[in-house]
Write a structure and sequence with these properties.
By secondary structure, the protein is of the alpha+beta class. It has two domains: 98 residues, Orthogonal Bundle (Ribosomal Protein S4 Delta 41, Chain A, domain 1), CATH 1.10.1050; 86 residues, RNA-binding S4 domain (Structural Genomics Hypothetical 15.5 Kd Protein In mrcA-pckA Intergenic Region, Chain A, Roll), CATH 3.10.290. A five-stranded antiparallel sheet has the order 2-1-3-5-4. α4 crosses α5, α5 packs across α9 and α6 crosses α7. The mean pLDDT is 87.
Amino acid sequence: MKTGPKYKIARRLGAPVFEKTQTAKFALSAAKKQRVGKRPPKQKSEFGKALNEKQKARFSYGLSEKQFKGYVDKSIGSENAPKKLFSTLESRLDNVLYRSGLLKTRAQARQAASHGHILLNSKRVTIPSILLKIGDVVSLRTASAGSLLFGETAERMKNLSAPAWLEVDAEKRQAKVVGEPVFDQGAQVFDLGVVIEFYNR
């Protein structure tokens, strides 16, 4: 998905929605924008606030509007729509590669999957949007394992605190889905309840 300047978008949304904005440098630049004496930002309408939450979620996962709306539409009507939407987004192959530390960013994970560097249950895949289920194992293709792209993978996986629903093996450079993604609204930079309401109006 093509986006504009990431720092500018993240500042506008008021959240570090891209991996490159989850740094001290971004926090410092955001603080400078809010320095004393600067005119306070115009208050958003309820629609504007809901749109902001939707954009935060969409940009966080790097999805197009069409892709994101498709996931929302499938979640609406379920017993707990925000939880269902979160589980779907987290279960995408590119997100699992990112969460496990196999790849540094979701964008990098999408590219690696698209180029055939990834194995799902020992079979080569090229679709980053595949939804994984409990028992699925993702790993690096033998022919790709020596690539510079994966040079720091093992070390990153050792140092990363992967979510409890993923079992990570840094030595083998693989990850296994062992549970369902746990939805905790307080841990997110976006409100999926508001996102569901935005599309359900």
